[in-house]
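I trust your eye. Have a critical look at both lines of this record:
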Amino acid sequence: MAPKFHELTISKVEDLTDDAKAISFAVPAELKSDYHFTPGQYLTLRADIEGDDVRRSYSISSPLGARDLTVGIRRVEEGKFSSFATADLQVGQKLQVMTPEGRFTADIGNIKDALLIAAGSGITPMMSIAQSLLEGDEDANVTLVYGNRETKSIMFREQLEFLKDRFMERLTLIHILSREDQDVPILNGRIDADKINALINTSAIDPKSADGVFICGPGEMIEVVRATCEEVGVDKSKIHFELFTPADGQEPRKAPTKEMLEAAEQGVAVEIILDGSKRSFKLTDANETVLEAANKHGLELPFSCKGGMCCTCRCKVAKGSAEMAVNYSLEPWEIEAGFTLACQARPTSDNLTLDFDEL
């Protein structure tokens, strides 16, 4: 089933730091099944901001079984949605919220030893994963390495300390600070390859023994930690991460290929299958993706990031052909099976049918 937006009411707004807030949404009984999630998934929030339809995705911090769904939002310089959310959203306000999406997930019950490595707002999905693991399995142990600039910039600091107090024997919490000295030198600096190796050498962490290593934060940090874990012998299948960048962070689009230009010149007959219905339109601009062309023709397709990272617009090429500009989320087997991302796909054939209902 394709993800859908529903209007949810804000039930709580909580200050986390000077520039970050936790926003909670009440989920009515009739939508509980729609908003069932796996720890690590995210919600896409949508609002009209100064006349623009703006969407941004934020990870769920709530554990399994929570009454409301909570996301953590840190204000980003010149960030249109984050500035709006941290300044204007109030309890009782309604907002368009997409049903949960994402593959950065933890299998509660099957992961007995989890290593979580986060930086900055990358802590948000870790809150859900850590608490769900600890509450859902009395045999589960969690080690959380969390990097920040200083103590006052730590998101969910009180909640983390409370969680540590509840699960003293099963939760190891390691704070790494880059702009505030701590008594133990190894806890100072940034999370990079040297830091990970130092933590391993002092037995503070043991990635090889973990059932799952979960990494979330800036893209550069994710790549460095992932590579370091692989170098010390962690099986690739046990390393989990999710690259995610909002729409205004996407790379410059590559020039259309000869096939794209020829197809657009003739006019591509595009058919969309979504929720059992079929809609058609013509694509005549080789620079446009299917998502952009559909929007121009008044057809709303599911999407979040527009950067090829979140997989919300995943669909299957049922007829014709298309090429993606970038792809950070589809697995090789999915591409081989004919799946594409509508936000990145540009037709290379005269006819193109995309099926959003195909799983």
About this structure: Helices lie at 80-88, 123-136, 157-166, 193-201, 219-231, 258-266, 290-296, 332-336. The domain at 5-98 is CATH 2.40.30.10 (Elongation Factor Tu (Ef-tu); domain 3). The chain has three domains: 5-98, 113-241, 249-355.
